[in-house]
Amino acid sequence: MSRMSKDKKSSSNVNIPSIYLLFYHTPVVKRLAGYFDKRLLTSRNPEDPKLFASRLFLILLVCIVLAVMFISFALIIFLRFYRVTLLPAYLALSLVMLFLGVIIPPIAYLISILDISQKIDKIKNGVDAESFSFATLFVIFLKSGLSPVLLFRKLEGSKAFSFVQDIVVYVNRRVQYLSESIEQALLKAMDINPGKLFNDFMLAYVTAIRTGAPVIETMEAKLKDLSKQFSLAANLASDRLQGVAESYVVWLSSGYIMLYLVLIMGAILPFVGNSSSLLTVLGPVVVLVVPMVNLLFVYMADSLQLKFPETQSSAYKIFYISLPIGLVVAFLIMIFEHQIVYFITLSGGLQNVFPVSIALLIGLLIASAPPAFFYQKEMREKSGFEEYAVKFLNAISEGLLAGLTFESIVTRLKDAQEMGKFREVLRKVDGYLKLGYPLTIALKRGADSINEFTSRIALYTLSDMIEIGSMTPDNVRALADQINSQLVVRREYQGKVKPLIATPYAGVLVSLIATFLLASGILSMLNSGIAVYGPIATGLVSIPQIIFITAISGILNAFLAGLLIGKIGYGKASAGFIHGIILMIVVTLTIFAFVELRISIVPNFHSNISF
Question: What contacts 550, CB < 8 A, 6 or more positions away?
């Protein structure tokens, strides 16, 4: 938004480290500031673009120096040590340092602008989601005969919107302080608004005003067009989420299994590499990096899914507390069972697999169970109103048409069976009315108890319609039709994405079972009594260690895969805590079946030799 003088004064009072101002007046920083100026405005960030660019340039410069150092060390290790000794450890170390040198600058840049990108994405999704209800209220205000200037002043006081509200305030300030017309101010607002649906709607309004077209008819037609655009956006989002789910399965069936295949082959085939060196290098990668790939897919799903500006679940706050507690409990169990050294060094064998797996399972259950419980509790209390919101609006429209007052309609509906769960909200509204609160305030208090966007926006919009005197049966019916069309599209979208939650379940279990079958089969053959010598004999030691690493990685992968399931199927990672619990239990049972029950695709020829 516009940077008002008070923003500049407040920012000037902030102590800025002098090191951030080193490149403030350089030509490079000025060019960067020109690039980031619009992005900062779009993200509602009042920071000075030159200061932001100067800080970013300093960070990138430091990271480039570090990158050059890492790459130089990588070349020195490769040329002076590896080429002389041909030890795989030197090659692995040089490759790791080269990798770090290459990725440090771009990662630093992405992290530096991540906050801006996330804010822009949040604003875009919020504005697009609110555009339908805003467009309905906008058309209702137009039908009420309000002038454009008065219309936007009325909209500025609306509590129905949060993201669109910033744009309305921006338009009003330009009209008030710069003496611009509404059309000019709207065109300026579109330049810094990332919401495409809102921009299309307001551009139709500006075009109708300037061309002399019938404004109300034009905006009503555009309102219907918005519904079609929303349906297309939902279909596109569901198709993209399907692509994310399929890509996740491809990753598990190729890249995930390939890492374990390299480890297993390195344990029995000398030309693949030294098994101890491979375990030293790839062991931490398998345990830490591989499960973290789930977070990358969570981010991909978050950027592609259909979003609504609903309040954030308190389950995340509970998780931030329960996660450290769960990890501490897991470590304490490992210490008590004398398994902590094997876990930290990843040097355990078959006898260590189940104790460490149980400790991890208990710790992660402690971390996941409380937020899963609170999420389910919140959903029961603050959701499930959408299907009744449209019935409520239609009942209001019919009641007004019959000559009843709004208050009497609420009193009759608060105990009606057809209102279902919405009766809780109506009883709350009726309670505030009996306490002497105005109807507009009572409706807003009722809306505050709802988490679902469409139900909440319906009550807020009714309150605004009452304030401007446009509460007519036709206007309420129009609002009901708009919300109903939005709900139909949302149900169709959810019907397409809900089946996708099966793909991470299948991918995680199939990849884990395939890895265990391969490792246990090779180990059974080595234990079958056939004489083995040389590097292949090391497989008797290395493969049990690989199974130990696989078990740890499998549980961590199941835990984070649950978050991906929640994000894909329900639009919220917090919905995945319960799925993470289910997956971890199933994975632990799978580990028990392979390690303790000694399931293998290769029979053991000597019963006295254990798996």
Answer: 260, 286, 512, 515, 516, 519
Q: What is the rounded CA–CA span in Å between residue 180 and residue 158?
A: 22
CB 139 within 8 A of CB 216: yes
d(CA 181, CA 606): 90
**Angle ∠(459,461,466) on CA atoms, nearest 5:** 95
Three-state secondary structure of 51-115: HHHHHHHHHHHHHHHHHHHHHHHHHHHHHHHHHHHCCHHHHHHHHHHHHHHHHHHHHHHHHHHHH
**Both tokens of residue 355?**
């104790």
d(CA 271, CA 294): 32
What does the pLDDT look like over 301-342, one tens digit per residue? 887 887 776 666 788 889 999 999 999 999 999 999 989 988
As a residue count, the chain comes to 611
pLDDT in tens, 515-551: 777 777 666 665 655 545 555 555 566 778 888 888 8
Asked if 279 and 262 count as a contact pair (C-beta separation under 8 A), the reply is: no
Q: Which residues of 123-151 are buried (b: 16+ CB within 10 A; e: fewer)?
A: bbbbbbbbbbbbbbbbbbbbbbebebeeb
Q: Is 269 left (phi over 0), alpha (psi -120 to 50) or beta?
A: beta
Provide the token pair at 267: 């344990």
Candidates 222, 200, 196; CA nearest to 142 is 222
How far is the C-alpha of 127 from the C-alpha of 135, rounded, in Å? Answer: 11
- The HSE-up count of residue 2 (CA atoms within 13 Å, CB side) is 18
Which domains are assigned to the chain? 5-123 (no CATH), 135-230 (no CATH), 237-306+315-383+500-595 (no CATH), 386-495 (1.20.81)
pTM of the predicted protein model: 0.76
pLDDT in tens, 92-133: 778 878 888 888 888 888 888 877 887 888 788 778 878 877
Enter the DSSP assignment of 537. Answer: G
Interval 424-434: pLDDT, tens:
888 999 899 88
Sign of CA dihedral 371, 372, 378, 381: negative
Residue 33: partners with Cβ closer than 8 Å, 6 or more residues away: 49, 50, 52, 53
Tokens of 325: 């507690």
> Considering only CA atoms, which of 604, 419, 442 is closest in space to residue 524?
604
> Backbone phi, then psi, for 30, in 5-degree steps?
-65, -40
Answer whether 306's CB lies under 8 Å from 233's CB.
yes
Using CA atoms, how far apart are residues 610 and 600, in angstroms rounded to an integer?
12
Structure tokens at 525: 């053959």
